[in-house]
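ok trying again, last paste got cut off:
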Amino acid sequence: MRKVWAVLLLTALIATGVLFVARPWRGVTVAILFPASGVGAPLGFSLTQSLLWAFDYANERSFVPKYRPIVIETDDVEAGMREAVDSGAVVIVGASTSTYASRLQKAADEVGLSVISVGALSQALAEEDNLFRPHSGADKAFVMGEMLRKSVSRYIVFASAQNPIYVVPFLDALATGMGSVRPYAYLSADGGVSRDALFSALAEIMETDAVVLALPDFSAAVVARQLRHLYLDTPIWMASWGATARFAEIAGSMGEGVRTIASWRPDALQTSHPFVRYIRRLYGDELDPFPLTLAYDAAAMLNEAVSRGGIDRDGITKGLSKIRGVDGINGPFVVDENGDGHPPLYLQEVSKRRWRLFEVISP
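nice, full thing came through this time. structure:
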C-alpha cells in the first residue's frame, strides 16, 4: 500500500511542477563561432550580439522547436568545433571573415556539421558543400568596378594581408568589372599605412582618379583619415567588408563622401519589419544595420532549413541544400545552387558620420 501511495505522490508532484524530470533537449542547439582576436574580432562581437537578438526574436514568436545558441569565441577553430559537438550543436552559425570561414567549414565538415556563414563574403567559398551564405560578395565588387570605370582611368588599392580569401577574389572581381582599367599600385594597409610607405606612394596616389580600400573597418578608417589629412580629395571607395557604423564613426569628418556597395540597407532600422520593431522597442534605433541585417538573414535561412528538413544535423543540411530563396530583413532574395544568397545591392555614401542610401541596385 505504501508503494502505491508513493507512486501516486510522485505522479502528483511531477504533474504540479514541484518535481521536474530531466528530459533531453528537443530544440535546435546552434553553435555561434567567431574569432577571439584579429581583424574579424570586432565585427564578430557585433554579429554575435545580433544573432542572439535574432534567435530571441524567433523564440518569442512561438518558433517551435526553440533555438538554444551556444557562444564560442576562439582562434583555435578545431578546439571550438570540439566544444560545439560536446554542447550538442546541430549546426554552426558564424565567421566574420572569409579566412576564418574557410577554416571553420573544413573543421565542421570533418564532424558532419553544416555552417551558415554570417560575414564571409568571398567568392572563393562559393562551392563548399557544407557552407551556406545568405550574403555573398562577388556581385558587389564587380558592380563597383563597372561603376568606377565610367570615370576612372587610374586607381590605387589599399588592401589587407590578413584576410586573403576575401581580398584576392574581391580584387579579381573588381578588376573584371573595371575592364581594361588596371590598378596603378597595391599597398598593404592593416592598421593603416606607415608614414614612409604613404609618402613613397604619394606621387602615384595624387595621379590616380580613385582609391579603393579592401580593409576591415578600423584600418579603412585610419587610411581614409591619413589620405584626407594630406588634403587629398581623391574619391574613396571601399569593400563592404569594412563598411560598418564603426568605420563612419572613427573616420569622422574625414570619411565624408566615402562610398561602398553593400547587400544591406543603411536605413534598415527605419523600415517596418517586425524584427526591426522588436529591436527598436528593446534597444532603440542607435544600432548598426550591417550586423543586424546579416544576423537576421542567417537566422531566417536556418528557420527555412528547419522547416524543410527538421531539427537534427542531417535534416538541417538537407533543408539548407533545398533552399532557393530566403525572406530577409529587406525582403525576399534568391539563393543559388551553391547555397549563396543574392540580396539587392545598395550604393551607400558616408554623410555626417553615417552611411546613407544613395541608390538601390538590382541583383
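cool. The radius of gyration is 23 Å. The first strand starts at residue 28 and ends at 34.
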